[in-house]
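Work through this:
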Amino acid sequence: MARNAIFTSSVLALALMGCASTPAHTQSGGDHNSNPITMADVQAAQNGWCAALLSLSESGRKGTDSKALATQILSSAYNYDSGPVVFKPTLTYGEQTFRMDKKGALAYFVGGDPSYPNDNGFALQDWVKCRPEVRGVYQHGDVAIGMGNVYFENGKGDKVMVDKTFGYERKPNGSLVIVLHHSSLPFSPK
């Protein structure tokens, strides 16, 4: 459990550090606070999200408690514990497409919840690489929306690219939390 707590802290630290990135398009609107969310903040948060996903995948391979780790990650990286999160995972459909509570998000990432029988645990699919590519950020005060792609690779070398939109809110302590997570596979015309 100590390793999980250290990992969660390092993910939050990574999200707060900010990584250099060249913005493809950044637009701001309206009033700004004294510490607006930047492209670098969004890039760092998405790098932290990928690191968390890879940690969950590793925990699945090692047979450790993925559910406990995922719960910690959802509490630190997402806004579920203090407010709403709008979450549309990649591989969901029908009545269970949208996950408005932590229980639904947890089921998507690690599976094992009979209330969500179609969830096999996206985060446990032997991911060994995860790389975000932020294409643009809209910033307004304590809120920013970043859109782009995330590239995944599993242990067999299979690769997939997913379209992602993350919305972030900066909390009073300076951390970013996810308030919007939309994910889909790219459209491919026949």
Remarks:
- The helical segments are 2-17, 39-62, 66-77, 102-110.
- Confidence is low (pLDDT under 50) at residues 1-32.
- Residues 2-20+31-184 form a domain with the Nuclear Transport Factor 2; Chain: A, fold (CATH 3.10.450.50).
- The first strand starts at residue 26 and ends at 28.
